[in-house]
Each structure stands twice: as C-alpha cells, then as structure tokens.
Design brief:
The structure is a single chain. It contains nine helices and ten strands. The chain has two domains: 207 residues, Spore Coat Polysaccharide Biosynthesis Protein SpsA, Chain A (Alpha-Beta Complex), CATH 3.90.550; 35 residues, no CATH class. The chain is 37% helix and 27% strand. It is an alpha/beta fold. Helix 1 runs parallel beside helix 2, helix 5 crosses helix 6 and helix 8 runs antiparallel to helix 9.
C-alpha cells in the first residue's frame, strides 16, 4: 500500500535516526516498503545502510555517482505502493501512525494531490515551513488541512496521480532552487488541478538549519551542498557556525 522514499547523501547520523523512528511509528506493519536511494555517499552512510539490508520491508538502491535532486526520478519510479511518501533524511521524529493518517487524509481530501506533515518549530529551526500567513485552513469533519506550500520533508501523494504527471517530472531539471517537492506540487496543480497543503495536527521534527547540522556532524556537508549550488548566502551562514 505505501512506499516511503528517502534520498540520502552523506548524513549518516540523520539517516539512522530517521529510519529507526520510521520503523517505530509505522501503522502498516506489513503492507509497506521503505526505498532508500544512496546518492553517492561516502563510507559512513554505507555502514549505516548495512544495518537495514536484512529487513524485508527495506530496499536500498546504490548509486556511485551523486546525481543531485534528479535522483528522485529513479527513486519515485521504483516505488510500488499505491501511496508514495517522500521523506527527507533529516526528519528525525514522526508522529505515531503518521502513515495511516496520511492515507486517511488523502482519501478525505480527494481534491488535494500533495499533503505534508506539519513541523515542530523551536528556537533552532522553523522546519522549513513558511509562515502561517501563507496558508488558509480547510476543515472537513474534524480534520484540518492548511492549504498552501507543502514541503517535501514528509509528504504524501497517490501513485495513480504521479503516473499522470510522471513524464513531465522525469524531463524536469531539479535543483535546490527547484526541488522535487515544488515540482511535484506544481505539476499536480497545473496538470491535474490538485491542491497542496499541510496536515495541521500531524507534527514531525524536521531538523533543518545550521544548529542541528553542527550537532549531528553534518555541517561541512551542508556547506558543500549550498556552495556547489551557488547558494552563497546560505553557505556563509553555515560557515559562521564552524567556530561557534
């Protein structure tokens, strides 16, 4: 029923925390798969992935070459489930039975094509979620979706909808300025007239920002990512944490 897709690149501590918490919080204990694409990572990530190779619910796709966000094309195309959940490897905690909730919301909100979990916001991160002024609440039968931007930190879409926009997604050029989440939401909206939004009551911990990158040993990886993508102001911001 469900395919959880994770693209990972040189964030081994995040990846292990992410997958371990996923396995603890899943409702569908049999009818799911976790598909992890290793996007040309170094040895530490490979060692973490070895931990999961004996789990029959987990499939690992290895890539020797780092393909950037375009690696999502192969990842989503490999998914077998009726519902695909796109998960960033820096989501470290999930709400209990989040997978069941996401499927139920997709069934209730049939005019939406892309629904993400809400995010914990604290003094160190906003979870990459825009301000509440970007959203309009859409309440139905006790459920509430915030209609508006839905980031790919943990977002669900239907496989049948994806098949209808797959050809456009596969030829799109993805980058950190034009990510897989924004591209999917845009295609669902433009091609299928489907909305996007946030499931208000379902909150995950998306550990974005320099504080958590430093805490878990991924600061230099983030600097490399932003520098190589000409996002110089972000790279400089992360560099300022090197000596803090």
């Amino acid at each position: 029923m469900i395919s959880i897709c994770i693209l990972t690149w040189n964030r081994p501590q995040f990846l292990e925390m992410c997958v371990d918490d996923l396995l603890k919080k899943m409702f569908y204990v049999d009818d799911f798969e976790i598909v992890i694409k290793n996007n040309g990572s170094a040895e530490q990530t490979k060692k973490v992935l070895e931990k999961y190779r004996q789990n029959f619910n987990i499939r690992i796709i290895e890539s020797k070459k780092h393909k950037g966000l375009n690696a999502y094309k192969e990842l989503f195309n490999k998914a077998k489930g009726d519902y695909i959940i796109d998960v960033d490897d820096d989501v470290l905690e999930f709400p209990l039975h989040f997978d069941k909730a996401m499927v139920e919301y997709m069934k209730e909100y049939t005019d939406y094509g892309f629904l993400a979990l809400n995010v914990l916001q604290n003094e160190y991160t906003n979870g990459a979620k825009p301000s509440d002024s970007s959203y309009v609440e859409d309440a139905r039968g006790g459920n509430v979706v915030q209609k508006g931007p839905a980031g790919g930190w943990c977002a669900c879409f239907r496989k049948r909808d994806y098949r209808k926009i797959q050809i456009f997604f596969n030829v799109a050029s993805l980058s950190f300025k034009n990510g897989e989440d924004a591209m999917l939401a845009s295609l669902f909206r433009k091609v299928l007239k489907l909305k996007s939004g946030i499931i208000k009551s379902q909150v995950c911990f998306h550990a974005t920002g320099a504080y958590y990158a430093k805490k878990y040993g991924h600061l230099e990886r983030e600097i490399e990512k932003y520098s190589s993508n000409q996002l110089d102001s972000l790279a400089e911001h992360y560099k300022s944490f090197l000596d803090n």
